[in-house]
Structures are given as structure tokens and as C-alpha cells.
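Pasting as-is:
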Amino acid sequence: MRLTMPTAVVEGTQLTVMPFRADAVIGTMSVPTLVQLVPSPRREEDTKTLKAASGAVRRHAELRSLVQRALKSTQKGKNVGSYAEYIADGVKGELGAGWSTPPITFWHAGPLAALSDELLPGTGLRTLTITPGTSVVAIDGETQTTAWHELYDDPERYGLTYAELAQVRVPFELYVDLTVADARQIFYDRNVQGVVVAKNLAMSMDQRDFATRLAHRVAEAVKVDIDGKPVPFTKLVNASKRQVGKTDAEVITLSALRALVITAIYGRGGLSRSAETVHEDELPTGASAEQVEQCVVPLLARLIADRSEHFVSRSALTAPAVLAGLGIAVHHTAPWTDPVNALGADELHRLLSDIRWEREACYWDGVAAKSGASGRLNFSGGVKDSGGRVADAILYPGTEAGRRIRGQ
């Protein structure tokens, strides 16, 4: 008797996907599937672990090294822990709807084992099969991939369970049967061709950042007069640009307003925090979040309202460095400031009353701006570069800079 052999069936991991070009698909997969398909990049860089790994994992590590940068001893590797914590907070619902992870870009090194016909005509949905031992490499989103491995290796450490992680769907795009050169090119394009967002601009978008929230509340608390009509100050604040242009309706950026808030809270120490997240548990000693908000918001709102004509006219007061320096001066009136340097509200008003806010070189050249060969004044020095000089000029009217900004 001879047994007939079964018809060959392609075995492996099946994913429901939708092609978006001839060699690429998009879809979602579960976290268990992700950690099974793509080995941990961190483990692949561990020499001892790799020696004991299977041949398939060693081959994967070799292929990965051709298209990826190292994790070990790099900022990329250092970010894994915080990324895992962020994802865990999102999965647990602690971030509400305001969290996101971008689709991971994978490279399937070789042709697919199988790709079905459309599951439902007209939808484009298909099922692909990835056979065991196939190398699938993350060419963009590897930090996220490593973070998912960290979570799945020890979910309890992050306050999660395997059951909770199994419910998560991870979006991905998969490029199939590309050459190493093409995979490298995609890595380059994703990491170089895109314009990197300036960190201070990105910070001004972070709604979990305490300083950003206060900046919004300051803007919402002010109305300015334009052509005899009251206009909300929010209309004059640009939240999407690093700098405002001459033709923009807005007069300052949200990141500049945030710099004013931060230096009002921290004083000179705020200059180095303009591109950092401000957490409520990192406020100055003796200051609570509620106290800071109740003090800073009305104080800055009144300061802006009293000088609204200088904002509307786009004077030097709208420059980020000038606002940062002004915030340092305001800090001296806060209840949590060092008593040795404390100022009263009347004294601050006196210091500000005779400052010339016009954008003219005779007042601001060498303090918050530089005058070019054409005589044009450039305020591009920035918060960290010029904020301290502006503060000194405001607080010490007897100095050369103090006399200059007062036209003396």
C-alpha cells in the first residue's frame, strides 16, 4: 500500500492587507504577531545572545545591520524605555484619545509565499502568508518595534497584561522583495528627506505640557483693540509656525508666548527649558500647579493687554527673545521667587514704563537683535542666546544695555 502525499499547503503567519503599489501593502497586526515576526533589535545587538540564537535569527541580524543604525549606546536606544512607557500609558487609557504611534515600515526580504485573491471584490483586501524563517526587518519605526518587545517581555512592569497587549492592533506598511539598496534608500528618505520639526515648535503642540496649556489660557484671557474692535488675542497667535511672516495675520508664535510663560515660572532657568516638556511635578520649590496658574495667567494677560498696541504693531515686544527676557523680569514678582531678588508689581511697572519697544537698531542692536550691513535689524538670536541680555537690560536700567532700550 502506498500513501498519497497531501497537497502542498503554504504554512505561516497570515495577515489581512491592502496593496497600495505593486510591491507594498498596508495593514495591522497584533502585538504577539509583531514580536514573533520581527526579532528584538536589542537582542540582535547582544553578542552573547546572538551566538546562542537560531540560524534564522542570526541571518535576520545580519540583514538588519545592512539597513539599520545601531540601538546600543545611541539616543535611539535610550528612547526605547520612554517610548514603551508612552505606549503603555496610551494602551491603559491614561492619555485619552490624544496619543498615537505611526505605522511601522517593514521590509520583507524576498517574495511572498502566498497572496490570496481579493477577499471581497472591489475592496482590495487580501491575505498574505509569511513563512517561518522569513526575514522581516523594520526599516522605519525600529524604536517603536523595540518598545513593543519591551512591553511584551515584561508587561507587568508597565502595568499591563498579556491579554491587554493581545487586543492592540499595530499599523504597518510592508515592502516586498526589495533589494538591499532599495531598502536602504527608503531608510534614507524617511530619515533625511522629511523636514525635522523644530523642537520648540513641537513642544508648543504638546497639550500635556503645562507651559503650553498656560500659554493657551493667557491668550484666551486677553482681548486687544484693532481698528476700534475688540479682538481675541488668540487670533494673533500662530500655533503652526516657527516664525510669523510679514503677511501673516498673527503677530507672535505660540512657542514665543510659551517662552514668556516658562521664564515667568522659572526665571533665568526657564531659558534652557524652552524646548523641554514642563511637568507639573517639576515646578519651582514651594509652587503648586494651581498657584502657578492663578498667578501667571492673569499677570501675563494684564501685561499683554496693557501693551497691546506694541503687539499689534509687531514691535520688538513680539520677538521670542524679548518675551523670554520680559518673563524673567516678571518672575521676580512671583510668590515663589527668591526673596533677595523679589520685585513688587509697581516696581516692575516702573521698569517697563520707559522702554522703547520700537523695532529700531538704536534701541535693540546688541541686546536682542543684530543690525546687518543694510541697517536691517535681525531678531533671530533666539531665546537662549538673547533672553538673558534682554532681562538684564530690563532689570538694570543703569547699565549700557538698560539705557539703550530706554533710548537714553
